Amino acid sequence: MKQLTAILLAVALVAAFTFVSGCTGTDSGDVTHLRIGYQPSTHQTAHTTAMDKGWWQEDLAPFGITQITDYNFPTGAPEMQTMLAGDLDIAYVGSAPFIAAVSTGLDAKIVAAVQTQGSDLVLRNEIPYSTPADLVGKTIATFPPGTIQDTILRTWLEENGVDPASVNIKAMDPGAATTALSAGQVDGVFLPHPSPSVIAAEGTGRTVVQSGEMMKDHACCVLVASGSLIREHPEIVEQVVRTHIKATEYNIEHPDEAAAIYSKKTGQNVETVKASFRDWDGTWTADPNVITTSVVEYTNLQYELGYINKPLTQDDLFDLSFYEKARA
C-alpha cells in the first residue's frame, strides 16, 4: 500500500509541476500575486462566487495584491503536490489530501472550513443494492488514495464487515468516473457533488448512500493557507478568511445566484447545479471549530489505512486565529 501511495504521489507531483509552471512564489518580500487552487465541485462554491464578483481582487487590493490567479485541479492530491512545490498560496481542498501532504512536509494550515458531507455513492440503475455487502466484486470509481472519498469509502466498508480489497476501488477524477459509469465500465462511483446530480440528470445511475450516512457530520473541504503567507503576511490571510466568510454567507442566502455563477465558471448545466444544491447532504460553513474533531479523526483513519506514518494533532493542522480575528 505504501509503495502504491508513493507511486501515486510521484505521478501527481509531475502533473502538478506541469499544471502551474511559471507561477511566482511567496518566499519573501511583498506579495502582489495571489495563487488560489480549487476543484470544480459545488463544495467549493465560495471560491467561484468570490472570484466572479471580484471580491478577491477588491478585498485584497489594499494589501498590495494586484493579481489573483486560480488553478483548477481534478482532485486534491495533485493540488496538494502543487502546494508542496510552493506554487499555491491558498487552497480550497479536501481535508484528507491536506493531511497526507502535511505528513510529507507541507508547510500550511487550515484557516477556515468550507463545508461538511456532500458526497454520494451512486450505482448504475441496473445494479441492485441493499447493504454494503452488495458491493463485493463490484468496481467503484472514486478519488485517489488519501482523499476524503477514498478514506470514507474504505472506512465505511470495513465498519460494515466488508474487506475493501473485495471491492475493486478504482482511482479516477470525477469527469472520468462519470463517463466510465455511463459507459458501463464501472458499477458505481463515490463522488462529491455535483457529480451525483449530473449522473441523475443523465439517467445513468442513482444515489444509494450519502456520505453523511457513512460518517455523520464529517469534514470535507477546507481553506488552507501556506506557512510562508501565514508568517510573512498574516494580514492577507485574515482578509482571505473574511472574504471566504462573506462568499459562504452570500451563497447560503442566494443559492440560485450561486448556482448561476458556478455554472458560468464550470460550464455545467445550471439546473443540474441547482439540483445538486437541493439534493446533497452537505452544508456550507466557514467555521473551522465545527470540523476540528472530524479532521483530526481522519489522521487516525489514514494512519490505519497506511497513508500516513503517524496520526496528527489539531495544532499540526489548524490555525484558528484568523477565523477568530475575522469574526471579532
From TrEMBL:
Protein name from the UniProt record: ABC transporter substrate-binding protein
InterPro entries referenced in this protein's UniProt entry, alphabetically: ABC_SsuA_sub-bd, NrtA/CpmA_ABC-bd_dom
Organism listed in the record: Methanoculleus formosensis
Sorted UniProt keywords: Cell inner membrane, Cell membrane, Membrane, Transport
SUPFAM superfamilies from the UniProt entry: Periplasmic binding protein-like II
Entry GO CC: endomembrane system; membrane
GO MF annotation: an example: ATPase-coupled transmembrane transporter activity
Localization of this protein: Endomembrane system
